[in-house]
Amino acid sequence: MPRPAKKIAKEKEAQPQKKYKSYARLRGMRDVLFDEYKYWDLVTNKAVDLSRTYGFKRIETPALESLELYEKSTGESSDIVSKEMYSFVDKSGEKIALRPEGTPGLVRAYVEHGMFNLPQPVKMFLIGPFFRHDKPQSGRYRQFSQFNLEMFGEPSPVADAQIILIAYNFFKELQVPVQIQVNSIGCKDDRKSYVSKLLDFYKERGRKSKLCQDCRKRLVKNPLRLLDCKEEKCAAMLADVPQIVDSLCDDCRNHFIKVLEYLDELDIPYNLNPLLVRGLDYYNKTVFEIWPLGEDQARQASLGGGGRYDELVEQMGGRPTPACGFGLGMERTIAKVKETNIPLKNHNEDCIFIAQLGEQSRRKAFLLFEELRRSGIKVRQMFTKDSLKAQLEEANKLGAKFSLILGQKEIIDGTVLIRDMESGIQEVVDYKKIRTELEKRLANGEKREELRNENLEVRS
Ligand code: HAM
Question: How crowded is residue 120: how many other Cβ atoms within 10 Å of its Cβ?
Fold first, then answer.
């Protein structure tokens, strides 16, 4: 039965009217809230640490670049440029774009800063946000972050293998099980001869007529992209499609064999995937992707991808410079890390909590906090609270080792109460001696921890 209009109007009247409008974040965008930073720190530190270990230096490029940079490198027919780019004309009439991926900006930086004058290879990494106006879904956002790693000036297959090794180590050390998909798409001539075989294949047995709308367009614009169509009827035909590795010239075949030999020697498990071509225009020879282990690629999204792009630097106005690299998705990696039980660092562990009671003691506690902090002791507080119970609860939550309690009595006596948070035992300490007392107790704690670890080692 419809509800009477009068009743609805009355209910509306009863609701308090908001004075101002509130705003929601844009579709496909995420806020990273406090607790999630544990994961961001873990994953970012792993990326930085691994990159530096292998001799890569950190770089950042602007989020805005000229639109043409992406049209000429990522490729006008790629989905990224043709469908997903945030591009616009700025106030001075320039056509610009928010970076949808990292490689073009890094190539521009390499050329613009004359990095060919540096000893080669030039090895760099970047961690930062990217923007694609894609259809949002789980693991696919309109703003996301990537860990990009690129090596310029090294033609040898060692470089390809090392790039894949770093990507593999990144996931392995974060305890994310992955499978590496590898293929070679050869050089321009190899792809030309392969594309003609591919077109013949689709001409035969009326296969062309069974293709989806997008693939029919791809047949004219970018036939290689037919290989990664996820549409059921197109995917079904791929089982019989000719393989690109059979069209490789001697140089490209030997290069690929060497990359695989290195991977074998390094004990990196991989899957030869003849359908892997990647959706960006600049690749040649080795291409690879990292998929979560045991997940069907049609359903899920890859954790990362990369490959070689030996012609791009020259195409972007630089000297001929071979290059290769990868981009790994930070959000997708973090989602996977959350599924594992990897121990996360608690930045507050074993801290000293300072609790206070009353206005006067709060003032003194403020000073004590600064003094201890400056002397390198890990101190925490909650000076906005008056209740001792609430403050000690917070100390417990943080994992504090000791709490220092300053009340009226302690102010008058020139003392501080020191509470062992594990045993609950409280002792009175002279205010002037509190720093040395804490240092002594913390050092004792460390010694005990060392002894415990030694015992554990002996026992194991
Ligand atoms: P890509 O395959 O387009 O390659 O992206 C690399 C990774 O970025 C993906 O595997 C995924 O983890 C993440 N990613 C991409 N789009 C999204 C999205 N909408 N939401 C969340 N994560 C996403 C590149 O970008 C190349 N520049 C990689 C490269 C570097 N090749 C050579 N050097």
Answer: 15
Whole-prediction pTM: 0.90
Residue nearest to atom 1 of ligand 1 (CA): 305
Q: Is 122:107 a contact under the CB 8 Å cutoff?
A: no
Q: How far is residue 101's CA from residue 29's CA, in Å, rounded to a whole number?
A: 16
Phi/psi of residue 108, each to 5°?
-55, -45
Q: Which atom of ligand 1 is nearest to the CA of 150?
A: 33
Supply the residue whose CA is at minimum distance from atom 11 of ligand 1: 329
Strand order in the sheet with 270-272: 57-58, 122-131, 143-152, 323-329, 304-308, 284-292, 178-184, 270-272
Nearest CA to ligand 1 atom 8: 329
Beta strands in 104-163 (DSSP E): 122-131, 143-152
Instruction: Calculate the CA dihedral of residues 371, 374, 378, 379 and round it to 10 degrees.
Output: 30
Mean pLDDT by 10 residues, the chain (460 residues): 65 76 96 94 97 98 98 92 96 98 98 98 98 95 98 98 98 96 97 95 90 89 87 89 96 98 97 93 96 73 96 98 98 96 85 96 96 95 96 96 97 96 96 94 74 47
